[in-house]
Amino acid sequence: MNSICLIEDELKVASFIRRGLEEQGYRVSVVENGTDGKKAVANEKFDLVILDVMLPDISGIDLCRSIRNNDTETPILMLTALNQVHDKVLGLKAGADDYLVKPFHFSELLARIEALMRRNKIKEEDHFLTFDDLKLDSWTKTAERSNKKIALTAKEYTLLELFMRNPNKILSREYIAEQVWEIGFDTGTNFIDVYVNYLRKKIEKDFKSKLIHTVIGMGYILKQDNK
Ligand code: CA
Fold it and tell me: For 212, left (φ over 0), alpha (ψ -120 to 50), or beta?
């Protein structure tokens, strides 16, 4: 379930937003001032923050900037009043992703929230490569299979990434040598087979199925066992 932190001191507005979002299946935490809002966002990873500009203690714009110092990913939607046009610009400069002017229709708020969540999901998925139950994170250079972390050396990572960018495709030893080691293939060595076997041990040994298959006389292929 997606979770939203709503930082809004006007209780009527807060309960209107909360009720509507809960009906849509969101989990909503309402916080009534900036200090508590800051704490809530630091303590929990929300999928989105709705932040009112006019708060009793801190300005929403300062709070937005302070959230962005530690967290550049969580989408922030700012709520501004009609007479605070300059706040929109300041809010966006402070790191908000979008803003909505009060009063608004709930359907408008929902549309903005859905758009921000979609955008963020695409951003997050950008750095993951997945194949079957194997997942590779190009930011941290780590692999995970069936939610179990697998440590890889730099070369193993590059080799696995090559397979995962070319699933269900036979990769020749020559091609692998060029792509991973940036060298021409020397038929006198078997280092590619050695590395593929290191990698296999890590990603297959403790798991249910094989992923990297040998194609005799041709090379290797990343594919599901039963296909
Ligand atoms: Ca307010």
Answer: beta
pTM over the 0.90 mark: no
Compute mean pLDDT per 10 residues along the chain, 227 residues long, and list them. 95 96 96 97 95 95 94 91 76 90 94 91 78 90 91 93 94 89 68 93 92 94 84
Give the type of residue at 184: G
Span from the CA of 13 to the centroid of ligand 1 (angstroms): 9
For helices 191-204 and 154-165, what crossing angle results, to 10°?
80
> Pairing state of beta strands 76-81 and 3-7?
unpaired
> What spacing in Å lies between the alpha carbon of 23 and ligand 1's midpoint?
23
* Exposed / middle / buried, residue 62 (Cβ in 10 Å: 0-12, 13-18, 19+): middle
Could you report the per-residue pLDDT of 47-76, keeping only the tens digit for each? 999 999 999 999 999 999 999 998 888 999
CA of 52 to the centre of ligand 1 (A): 6
The rounded Å distance from CA 43 to ligand 1 centre is 23
| Contacting residues for 96 by C-beta, under 8 A, at least 6 apart | 51, 64, 76, 77, 78
